[in-house]
């Protein structure tokens, strides 16, 4: 026989034997591999669940209007209060609600607010909206219809008129 034939036959036998050995090792069950397999199935299902939740959140997210969510700051200069109030706007269902978060006076002192709902935005198309603004005046609370006009994505003007008393507040993203 020629040397080349012997080399190729030897190489074929070595490949065949190593292939059979690998096949046998894959076919034998091992406890640690089984545990790892079950663990990987669980992690796969957890990843799948979290992806589904993220898709649900993204399906409910509307980029044209949902940028309203977050912290907004309003400056007040009246006899009763000079400073800023921070509100958190959250989307709840199809409406946006603003809750009082923090008061800051003109000297920089802060105090946590009572987390009360002050604004409900009933409709908003990304530029204009309508809602109900809650105002406290002389120990009484008033629900007032209001209009919202976006100035830019970080500023909007909230205006209302209630029995001859009108005001425009500028809300700025914090």
The N- to C-terminal Cα distance equals 87 Å
Radius of gyration over alpha carbons?
Answer: 33 Å
Low-confidence stretches: none
How much of the sequence is in beta strands?
over 45%
User: Given the C-alpha coordinates, what overall shape results?
Assistant: rod-shaped
User: What's the helix count?
Assistant: 2
- Tell me the strand order in the biggest sheet: 1-2-3-5-6-7-8-9
Average per-residue pLDDT, rounded, comes to 81
Descriptive notes:
With 174 residues, this protein is α+β, with helices and mostly antiparallel strands. The chain contains 2 helices and 9 strands. An 8-stranded antiparallel β-barrel has the order 1-2-3-5-6-7-8-9. The longest helix is centred in the first third of the chain and has 30 residues. The radius of gyration is 33 Å and the shape is rod-shaped. The model has no long low-confidence stretch (mean pLDDT 81).
Compact description:
This protein is of the alpha+beta class. Helices cover 32% and strands 47% of the residues. The mean pLDDT is 81.
Using brief descriptors, characterize the structure shown.
8-stranded antiparallel β-barrel, 2 helices, 174 residues, alpha+beta
Helices and strands in order, then pairings?
Layout: H1 3-27, H2 31-60, E1 70-77, E2 82-92, E3 95-105, E4 110-112, E5 117-124, E6 128-137, E7 140-152, E8 155-162, E9 165-173
Antiparallel strand pairs: 1-2, 1-9, 2-3, 3-4, 3-5, 5-6, 6-7, 7-8, 8-9
């Amino acid at each position: 026989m020629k040397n080349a034939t012997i080399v190729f036959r030897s190489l074929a036998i070595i490949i065949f034997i190593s292939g059979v050995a690998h096949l046998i090792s894959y076919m034998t069950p091992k406890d640690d591999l089984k545990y790892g397999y079950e663990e990987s199935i669980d992690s796969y299902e957890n990843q799948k669940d979290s992806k589904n939740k993220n898709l649900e959140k993204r399906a409910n997210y509307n980029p044209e209007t949902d940028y309203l969510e977050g912290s907004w700051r309003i400056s007040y200069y009246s006899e009763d209060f000079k400073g800023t109030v921070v509100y958190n706007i959250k989307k709840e269902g199809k409406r946006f609600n603003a809750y009082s978060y923090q008061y800051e006076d003109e000297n920089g002192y802060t105090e946590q607010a009572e987390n009360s709902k002050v604004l409900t935005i009933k409709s908003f198309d990304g530029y204009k909206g309508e809602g109900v603004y809650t105002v406290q005046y002389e120990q009484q609370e008033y629900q007032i219809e209001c209009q919202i006009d976006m100035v830019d994505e970080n500023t909007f003007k909230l205006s209302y008129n209630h029995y001859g008393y009108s005001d425009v507040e500028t809300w700025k993203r914090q």
